[in-house]
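On clarity, I found the account of how folds are encoded harder to follow than it need be. Since the whole study asks how a given chain folds, the encoding of that fold should be made plain. The format is easy to grasp once an entry is in front of the reader. For illustration, here is how one protein appears when written out as sequence plus structure tokens.
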Amino acid sequence: MSNQQTPEKTVIDEVVESLIKKTELLEKELSAMKKELLAKEEQTQALLTSFESKFSNVVIQAPAPDLSEVNATLKNGLATMNQNMEKWPKPLKTEYRFLFFPEQLRSVEYVRAVLTRIILFLLALVFMIFAYLLLNDHMK
């Protein structure tokens, strides 16, 4: 039995040794990849800082807007409106009227009320004028 156990140990030993070698190789590759990754990260950070330093002082100024076309369009529109307004018919005469009685309403009661107020106002005005004249003569 010891003969049979020896070859099994040898195969198991070989498998274990090959696994150990593979893990060591993988660990070396992993550490190399980590180093490369750190180097790439440093390069990226350096590129970012150089980009920020280059474009931190950049000032973008927009050109002044050209409103000449808009102004010309507005002037043309206003000129057209003025020409159209000048073509409209003009009133022939201007009339100023004092209407005691509205044209739509011609009832007797309304006319009587308005005439009564006008007559009373005129009588009060005449009375005040005579009173002023009498008092003015009396005061002198």
Summary: Residues 102-140 form one domain.
